[in-house]
Amino acid sequence: MFEYLYMNLKRIYLLLGLLLVQMTAWASSAVGDSAADVQRPVTALFTAEAGYGRMLDSYLTPITYTGWHTGLGFEHNQACGFNPEQWQRQLSMGVVYDNVENSVGNNTMHHLRGTARWALMRRWTGVFTPRLSLMGGGMTWLQGGMIYNAANSNNPVSVKGHWTLGLQGIAQYELKLGRVPVYLRYQVALPVVGVWFSPEYDESFYEIYLGNDKNLVQPGWWGNRFDLDHQLTADFRLGGTILRIGYHGIIERSWANHLNTHITTHAIVIGIGGEFLSLKR
Amino acid sequence: MSRFSLLVSCFLLLALTACHDQPEWNDDPWGNFDALWTIMDEHYSFFEEKNVDWNEVGQRYRAKLTKDMTSQELFELCGDMLKELRDGHTNLIASHDVSRYWIWEQYPVNYDERLIDEHYLNFNYRQASGIKYAILDNNFGYMRYESFTDAIGDGNLDHVFTYLSTCDGLIIDVRSNGGGYLTNVETLVGRFIEQRTFVGSIQHKTGPGHRDFSDPFDYYFEPTKNHIHYQRPVVVLANRGSFSAANNFVSIMSALPQVTIVGDTTGGGSGLPFTSELPNGWRIRFSSCPITDVNGQPTEFGVAPDVKVDMSDADAAQGLDTILETAFLVLKQHQI
């Protein structure tokens, strides 16, 4: 079975790499006559989150660290110009910081990471009930950062760099709380394939600095890494203003070069934003 | 089942393979001991060179564990086990102590800073960053670099080598230099080479097996461009306290044609140390990435000098540093 999957890995990469392009093609072919007349308001939110982080990176230590997690984010949603009634795109960017310590409390690690994700999703409205809409499609996700362990000698930093292609979905349910429209949303991003940076088992960054760049880039798939970013939120629409509160969770697992990474965060997220009319049709 | 469904099912199963369990140990004498033994077993790089049967060592020391032993007793037991590796880069670090195996404690000191300051420098020297330097009465330059942890910049070295440029020869004293940053080695060596120079090879472990190593990666140093170089004869003074980065410096300099190594064999320490951790918060530092010399030979056990000489008490009583006096003779022979 493994051989079969490895043999098909290139094909899977190619298929998923073409997914976004193909989706655009499908969408373009479905453009209606009235597309140019449909308004495409932008919803944009700035978010802040805080919560709990749990972290294992065996390049730095075999001990799991726990502590607090914070982050800032920005999310931009807009219907696509080529078919605004059925297709939507989302850009989300953010930076997270975790401050975690070992169980005896005598050492701290710092995790800093920036992320940017772009998704193109098909939208289905009125699924089962007029209040429920679903979105699903492809996304591409770029992440970069590091975990820093000041107590280590020649392995003080574990550098993180991923570029992935995958799936993204949103389920949104509309209700009213008094006179206030509320959108309950569950959003999940699930990378499927990609590439990521990993030194070899005990390879020092000094050796990389000397020029040994062999095997630093790993092909990523569910056999060696699994990431999940999901959030359950409630968006309160107060006129043109949107207030968001909810939960944001991140799961990251990787296993390559005998190096093990487990990162899990759970956070309360709040946000503020608005719905704006784009000047660009 | 369609081919697509089969593929998706397989991927879902394989998603679990990315979730690899990490061994966990209890924070008790057995848990901490097993964590230490396992970390060393999977990461330490010189078991074969030192002919250490780590399984036997582990069994022998594990049998001494008791549930009532104090933290200090456990620390001493673990420290004794690590000493079986005879490695100066291997330390168990706790808040109250650091276990160590420092071989220079077993050999002649071969360095007396006060003697040099008083009888050769007359307490009259310059200091740029971590480098003490002067022109001696016999017109030989003297540079004392105490630790490779002391940052040295090209600006510092320009001042040093401009001042010493009129000397007939240069003595670089790295005796009792316990090491530091290898980037400082590169910075200093760059002043003594005129072209891209092969200086050694580095390996790293690629897995937990005792023989899981990468192919040696040959690395080169570039001459420092647009800065002053020193091209006259050079003597490097070394002793058993010349360890780690200083050991690496001596190894690289010994391969340069204009350089003579005088003194004692260096202390070794050619494995770039990594750090890990036990459940009780103690840290373990160990040799991880072996570096070999230009001939592919390990320098873990030290670099032998071209001229072996120890300091004599009789000379010291007369205010003479036997090793430094030997360096003068070597440089004078180059003048002939």
Summarize this structure briefly.
Chain A is mainly beta and about 280 residues long.
Describe it for me?
Chain A is elongated. Chain A has a single domain (2-25, 44-276), classed as OPCA outer membrane adhesin/invasin (Lipocalin, Beta Barrel), CATH 2.40.128. By secondary structure, chain A is mainly beta. A ten-stranded antiparallel β-barrel of chain A has the order 1-2-3-4-5-6-7-9-10-11. Chain A contains two helices and eleven strands. Chain B has a domain at 105-270 and 288-335: 2-enoyl-CoA Hydratase, Chain A, domain 1. Helix content of chain B is 31%, strand content 18%. Chain B is built from ten helices and twelve strands. Chain B has helices at 3-15, 29-43, 54-62, 71-83, 113-119, 154-164, 182-189, 245-254, 313-317, 322-335; strands at 91-93, 126-128, 131-135, 140-145, 169-173, 197-202, 217-221, 234-238, 259-263, 271-277, 283-292, 307-308. In chain B, the strands form two sheets. A seven-stranded mixed sheet of chain B has the order 2-3-4-5-8-9-12, sandwiched between helices. In chain B, strands 1, 6, 7, 10 and 11 form a five-stranded antiparallel sheet that branches. In chain B, a hairpin with a 5-residue loop joins strand 10 (271-277) and strand 11 (283-292). Chain B starts with a helix and ends with a helix. The chains are: A mainly beta (281), B alpha/beta (336). At the A-B interface, helix 1, helix 2 and strand 10 of A face helix 1, helix 2, strand 10 and strand 11 of B.
What does the secondary structure layout of this molecule look like, with pairings?
The complex is a heterodimer of chains A (281) and B (336).
Chain A: H1 2-29, E1 42-57, E2 65-79, E3 87-101, E4 108-125, E5 132-149, E6 157-177, E7 180-197, H2 205-210, E8 217-220, E9 225-238, E10 241-256, E11 259-276
Antiparallel strand pairs in A: 1-2, 1-11, 2-3, 3-4, 4-5, 5-6, 6-7, 7-8, 7-9, 9-10, 10-11
Chain B: H1 3-15, H2 29-43, H3 54-62, H4 71-83, E1 91-93, H5 113-119, E2 126-128, E3 131-135, E4 140-145, H6 154-164, E5 169-173, H7 182-189, E6 197-202, E7 217-221, E8 234-238, H8 245-254, E9 259-263, E10 271-277, E11 283-292, E12 307-308, H9 313-317, H10 322-335
Parallel strand pairs in B: 4-5, 5-8, 8-9, 9-12
Antiparallel strand pairs in B: 1-11, 2-3, 3-4, 6-7, 6-11, 10-11
Helix pairs in contact in B: 2-3, 7-8
